[in-house]
């Protein structure tokens, strides 16, 4: 049986996520062909046909169009340069050191216009031998060519791809997570994602876990942030598949996210001092996050709330 046809595999290692994907497909307004693969065609009730493809080659000329869409959609400090995009797809850094493969999936129409993109990676978690997490970095739609429902379809393909990676490593895909904006929360709630909260023991108020998107670009001579980069306040959202995550799990997810998105290899810097400065920034990000969520005022439990649920609770952001 082909590995791509993961929904039909007999293994029960990732039974819950397989069922999640199967449900999303069965509830879709599109028909997928073939149904259990990342790369496929989808067709709606009007007969419109769209193509879903994953980029496997960092030299693909179409990646420039992907980069342009990133640049048009997000603030300058939220996007890395095209050299990062191309090298990451090949599983390496711009400096030639190995890296986790970046998975970029697109949807195009019959005119081959770029409509929707989902980009992310399946990340290993520290201190665990059998779990991985899929991190969504970007999910965006070309506003000029917006087609209702396509974001959902590219996300389904991303899950199929991440599940395939987990199965090949004989690991359990336990968490889906990423940085999200206020405007995207409704979509993620529909996909099963929720924001993460702590509860004040004295006031019983719910406080959202504070998260800052780190600096993405650094000066290679000094280790400081580059002029066109900076931190941005975002929201962390999560969908858990096999078990409810603990604070320890959240710390591991945050560490994996920071390591993947912001930590540069030693080879990137022109001197030892610059590298040490950079690593001091990375380590401080992790330490600050840990201190924020382990304060004594909280009851040591995580709470996961959708937008609708938050509207009925007394909470602070």
Descriptive report:
The chain has a single domain (6-316), classed as Gcn5-related N-acetyltransferase (GNAT) (Aminopeptidase, 3-Layer(aba) Sandwich), CATH 3.40.630.30. The chain is 31% helix and 24% strand. It is globular and about 55 Å long. Strands 1, 2, 3, 4, 5, 6, 7, 8, 9, 10, 11, 12 and 13 form a 13-stranded mixed β-sheet that branches. The protein has eight helices and 13 strands. By secondary structure, the chain is of the alpha+beta class. Helix 1 runs antiparallel to helix 4 (150-168) and helix 6 packs antiparallel against helix 7 (272-293).
Helix content: 25-40%
Low-confidence stretches: 1-10
Taken from the alpha-carbon principal axes, the silhouette is globular
Largest sheet: 13 strands, mixed
Question: Which secondary-structure class do the elements indicate?
Answer: alpha+beta
* CATH topology description: Aminopeptidase
Alpha carbon gyration radius: 20 Å
CATH class: Alpha Beta
User: Which percent band covers the strand fraction?
Assistant: 15-25%
């Amino acid at each position: 049986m082909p590995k791509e046809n993961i929904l039909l595999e007999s293994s029960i290692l990732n039974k819950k996520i397989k069922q999640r994907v199967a449900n999303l497909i069965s509830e879709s307004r599109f028909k997928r062909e073939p149904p259990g693969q990342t790369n496929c065609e989808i067709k709606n009730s009007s007969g419109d046909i769209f193509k879903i493809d994953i980029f496997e080659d960092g030299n693909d000329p179409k990646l420039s169009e992907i980069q342009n869409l990133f640049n048009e959609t997000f603030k300058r400090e939220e996007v890395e340069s095209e050299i990062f995009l191309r090298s990451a797809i090949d599983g390496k850094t711009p400096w030639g050191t190995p890296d986790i493969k970046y998975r970029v999936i697109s949807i195009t129409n019959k005119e081959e216009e770029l409509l929707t993109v989902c980009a992310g990676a399946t990340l290993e978690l520290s201190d665990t031998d059998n779990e991985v997490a899929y991190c969504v970095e970007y999910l965006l739609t070309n506003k000029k060519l917006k087609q209702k429902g396509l974001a959902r379809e590219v996300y389904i393909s991303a899950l199929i791809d991440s599940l395939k990676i987990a199965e090949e490593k004989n690991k359990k895909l336990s968490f889906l997570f990423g940085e999200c904006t206020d405007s995207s929360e409704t979509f993620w709630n529909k996909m099963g994602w929720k924001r993460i909260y702590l509860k004040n023991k004295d006031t019983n108020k719910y406080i959202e876990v504070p998260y800052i998107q780190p600096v993405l670009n650094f000066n290679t001579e000094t280790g400081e942030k580059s002029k066109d980069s900076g931190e941005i306040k975002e929201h962390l959202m999560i969908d858990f598949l096999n078990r409810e995550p603990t604070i320890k799990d959240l710390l591991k997810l945050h560490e994996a996210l920071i390591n993947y998105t912001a930590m540069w290899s030693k080879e990137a810097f022109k001197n030892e001092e610059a590298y040490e400065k950079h690593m001091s920034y990375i380590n401080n990000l992790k330490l600050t996050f840990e201190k924020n969520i382990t304060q004594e005022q909280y009851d040591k439990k995580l709470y996961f709330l959708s937008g609708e649920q938050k509207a009925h609770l007394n909470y602070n952001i």
